[in-house]
Amino acid sequence: GITFRALAKGGTMAVTNKDDIPSARFASEMLSVSSVDKQTDLHIHIDAIERYLHGNLSLENTKKFFESIYLTFTSQTFHSINIMDLIKYYKKMMTDDNNPIILLNRILYDNNSHFYIYGSNDQSRLNFHGSKIYGHNGSNNEIHLGFVEEPPFGHIVLFEKSDYPKISQKRALNFLKKCFNPADFTFVFVGNVDITMFKPYIERYIASIPTSKTLTNQKLTRPKSFKRAVYTDDTYDSQIHMCWVIDKKYSQKLMAASNVLEAYINIIFSDHIECPGLEVYLNPFFDELYMKMHVLCCSKSAEEYISIVFKDIQNIAEGNIDLSILAKAKKMMQNLHKDAKDSNYDRAIADGFACSAVLHNTSLSEFEKFPSTYHAVSSEDLKDLTSQLLKGKHYQIILHPKDKKH
Q: For the whole model, what pTM was predicted?
């Protein structure tokens, strides 16, 4: 068989008309629950900052698969779902302003309607960056490469009540038509590819697709550092949300160090905090590195947990690093890379190449070098990276149950 991947920058965040944004996000959600062609197993995802196609083809269905690619780019439509029923479903799910996720969104982005803390769009995917894989326990075994932009905290709410009147099939389809410019995409085929047989298919079904205007993203601006406590009657536990953000451009060394740092901190936290949920992520779309965490606790424990977090992170920044735990963290990342290759080598290569070409501007060989790059991460690397993060923008939000307000 042959593994297919196609990746392009630009997604719902490229929509400039605020009234069109709900329909663009709705189109993205529609694609997450519908395939272009069930027979050819071609899937499409459009998120805030990227567009992505993936699937598998055999020699027997090669022509049909290429036809599906062509139709995807030239004849946008929705399949296998009643659009109005889905809109009604979301209308029932829309909540009031007390929803803590909507409150977080407004605090973080000053009512920026592009950013909502993700829900079903993100549940059945894996993010592949270099050699790091994030699992979402999906039931469909779908693979998603690249980064699905989300605010630094929590889970996503797709719509608010005020969005509902703005969602229309016409607006959604108009957005989709802008998404499929072949010149934006890098197409990758990995496996038993017969170049002689594939060349006419590529010429007929890909090279012949008309080009259009490139879809580009708006610039992301983060808020200034702040600390805030919010009381809401829509939460039972207190929720601590913390994030540090610094400007950083992608490099393989930095990616490896950030991955190892995340593994190291989570091992340290596991002795002090139950389910810390910390992530360190190098974001190639916005040239930034962030470290974020989310903890549920009783209201009396919130300040104690925050103190523990700062103490553990500060210890790393001061160079107090346990070398045995560092070795364990590096081994964990090397094993993730090995598991990715062993489970499906062609898929790992396809994802790695698309990511390298579109996001990182690096060579395919980078994928193979990650085990040695992880091995080279030192305690000094973790110290320097943590020190830089602690000097960056810091956001701290605590959501408390309203009945705990004093």
A: 0.81
